[in-house]
Amino acid sequence: MFFFFVGGVEQQVRQVLKYGAGRCITCGSKADLVEYEKVLKAFFVPVWRWPGKEQLLHCNDCNLFFPPQLSADRTTTAVADQPDVLRCRFCKEAVEPEFRFCPFCGSSLS
């Protein structure tokens, strides 16, 4: 006898608390501050839901959930005064020249 189970847990937005509260760390578009819930699905049908522990930012473009601390605007005037520093084109963090991928957002630097 064989049994196949198709299911998993995913995060879904329960309530938007503030629209445009930050920037996505992956694609750079606006992200909303949300309360979320985790949903257990069995055979693509929601079976059980439970609330998330804290508020997160959610990007509607790439469907990414991330903590608000990561979305802090890192492009200050002191950063803009350093043109010779290698920066990630997505998250604008300063990156060492020997890296091939950004250690902050994971995107390719080439």
From TrEMBL:
Pfam families given for it? Zn_ribbon_15
Query: Which residue range or ranges hold the Zinc-ribbon domain?
Result: 23-106
**Which InterPro entries does UniProt cross-reference here?**
Double_zinc_ribbon, Zinc_ribbon_15
Which spans are transmembrane here?
A: none
Q: What is this protein called?
A: Zinc-ribbon 15 domain-containing protein
Native source organism of the sequence = Punica granatum
